Amino acid sequence: MSDIIRRDPRAEWIARNRLHPLHASMQKAETSWMGPNGIVRKNPHVIAAGFVGPAGLKRIDRSGAQQGTVGKRSNASVEVQLPLHIIEQPAFHICVVPDMVGGRLSSHDKDLLGLARKLAGDSGAVVAVIFGEDKEGAFDTAGVDRLLRVQGDAFDGYAPEARVLALSAVESQLAPRHWLLPDSRTGGGELGRRLAAKLGERPATRVWQVAGEQAIGRAGSGQQDIQRALPRLILAAAECAEPVSDTRHEVRLLELAEKVAHSLPRVEDLGPVAVDPAQIPMAEAEFILSGGNGVKDWKMFHQAAIALGATEGASRVAVDDGFMPRNRQVGATGTWVTARVYLAVGISGAIQHLQGIGACDKVVAVNMDPGCDMIKRADLSVIGDSAAILAALMERVATWRQEGKRDAA
Amino acid sequence: MTDLNIVALVSVGAHPTSARPRRAEQDARAVELGLRLAGQNLQLLHAGDPQAEALRGYLGMGLEQLDVLEQPEGADALPLLVDYLQGSRTQLVLTGSQAETGEGSGMLPFLLAERLGWPMVVGLAEVEKVENGVAQVLQALPRGQRRRLKVRLPCVASVDNAAPVARQSAFGPARRGQIEAHEVTVVDDTLLAEASLQPAKPRPKRLKVIKAKTGAERMKAATAKASGGGGQILKDVSPQEGAEAIFKLLIEEGVLR
Ligand SMILES: Cc1cc2nc3c(=O)[nH]c(=O)nc-3n(C[C@H](O)[C@H](O)[C@H](O)COP(=O)(O)OP(=O)(O)OC[C@H]3O[C@@H](n4cnc5c(N)ncnc54)[C@H](O)[C@@H]3O)c2cc1C
């Protein structure tokens, strides 16, 4: 419930009504009384303690007329528990393979789970199949009835062939009514098509609406829609359905019955290649170090960006003052960025700037002013001088790199 | 340049605004990549109508010949391509990742690889070297990242917009180039019999649903400025402690490498 303080007319009325059974308990501490020698005595402490008025402000009423509404009437704020949706014996399964970018369900994944929920109805169970470790803590509210974790070294990193084998094992174990994968560039689009080729299913791709038994998806270069009967395998676009929002689900763990067939990978992952972060278009960059008016030492800022391997961004003030080129401006009149981590140094968080970082996952703020808007938006804020913190951060990263080299050697 | 046998599969594209036939953007990038790898040895292959003018756009990139497996519109290109490639000594098949006309599901390279039993690489950006029948390639990832892969040849590779931009198509060579039609047996595609293509509808904009029980909450949701709260705030800490906290978050998110 809200924290707004309200008058309680009923309590005030009881306090006035001497015949009410609760009258005594509604009396506040006595402020004045007749002393033994006929002198009126007052307790100034009680008066000065005052009471909290309807606007949340402390009031002192020396007339003694105020009655009732002692202290703040607070309803203990209860965490709203969403109703639990239980499926004991699912009639069928709907398998979802979320992308889990960075180990968490992305908004695309959640839309997909919403669609799966819709297809599962009351009798089906939504199974999420995930590979490796995850950092997601909210599978239950995302609509996952069953969770199947496929673990093993073979599935780590880029291993589409091994993953498809694992998914075919799931196919033979559960025979799901539908397979749902995100049609994204972060893995789902590829994995889904590989799975379709393996299972010999013709998928519906770029699906943006499922209505009844029909799926509508984009075709060609997006100028046309294709409408068809709902196939078993669906590769759905973002916002294909509303995410689950008003139920909780069991997240019961499932196991693969058999070990996944092992095959020699024909495509071997040799790891990521270092790319120059300055070359990555800002709108696409994954990690942005952005500087504003609070950055005083721009040379060090650039060094920090290199040390962290981050793409540089800036607020409008930093650009207007000539410290950064115009194409680095983030915000309403600059670039709308989609970084997973946005490190804002000395940026106050004007609304024009915050608009530009609306799609960022994690925002870290470094600022002197603990009350500024950027800190309200940030997931982690460090209050302090930008130069000192950047220097310390560079040092920390340097030692980490050193350790890494020593470990590798 | 290597002496690989490379085939680039090309299709007829559609201009995004006028919808006029043209060379498909991604297929042209595949041809560009092939030209850089194999030069004149690159073979162009199309399944469809040999009369299509747009095909000449690929010849204009500096190739003399384009092979066409002749089939009418609405036929399934996959069996023809599988038959053709199985018999050839092709080591690398380059395709775009999605056609600009028709269904455009992007399934073709995957199905081709599955039927041929070859490995498949998605988003090929660069071939670094080829040794002993193993190619070392760079794969384009979202957000401008690259990944190095080792893949056994022969293989199928699709390119997307991260591959090198296609060179311009010159008019003269485009006219002079030969389009060689091959007779093949035609297999019909069943999809279009049961599905319908229609002009794309604009997608409904997602509304922000506010689930508030009280008026005060609704007011708050409507006027809220920053989606505040929940963030951790470190105050009165030394720069080192602050940096440590930021560092931990960066490691957790996996953006430091
Ligand atoms: C039409 C219009 C469009 C605009 N479009 C954009 C846009 O696209 N992008 C954009 O960014 N802005 C835009 N603006 C400008 C925007 O309103 C703000 O003026 C601007 O974002 C503020 O930039 P800033 O946060 O860097 O500077 P300031 O608001 O001056 O903030 C500086 C911050 O740094 C902190 N600080 C100071 N010294 C230190 C230190 N030593 N260590 C740590 N912190 C320190 C301060 O506490 C303060 O919070 C636009 C404005 C208008 C009117």
From TrEMBL, chain A:
- Name the residues that span the membrane: none
Q: Which keywords fit this entry according to its UniProt record? A: Electron transport, Transport
Question: Domain named Electron transfer flavoprotein alpha/beta-subunit N-terminal: which ranges?
Answer: 94-268
Q: Where is the signal peptide?
A: none
Q: Which Pfam families match?
A: ETF, ETF_alpha
GO biological process terms on file: fatty acid beta-oxidation using acyl-CoA dehydrogenase
**GO MF terms, alphabetically ordered:** electron transfer activity; flavin adenine dinucleotide binding
> Which family does the UniProt entry place this protein in?
Belongs to the ETF alpha-subunit/FixB family.
User: What's the protein here called?
Assistant: Electron transfer flavoprotein subunit alpha
Organism of this sequence: Pseudomonas sediminis
Q: What is the lineage of its organism?
A: Bacteria, Pseudomonadati, Pseudomonadota, Gammaproteobacteria, Pseudomonadales
TrEMBL record, chain B:
Q: Which residues form the Electron transfer flavoprotein alpha/beta-subunit N-terminal domain?
A: 12-189
Keywords in alphabetical order: Electron transport, Transport
Q: Which domain of life is it from?
A: Bacteria
The Gene Ontology terms for molecular function here are: electron transfer activity
Under Pfam families, the record lists: ETF
Q: What family does this chain come from, according to its entry?
A: Belongs to the ETF beta-subunit/FixA family.
Q: Know the name of this protein?
A: Electron transfer flavoprotein subunit beta
In its UniProt entry, the species of origin is given as Pseudomonas sediminis
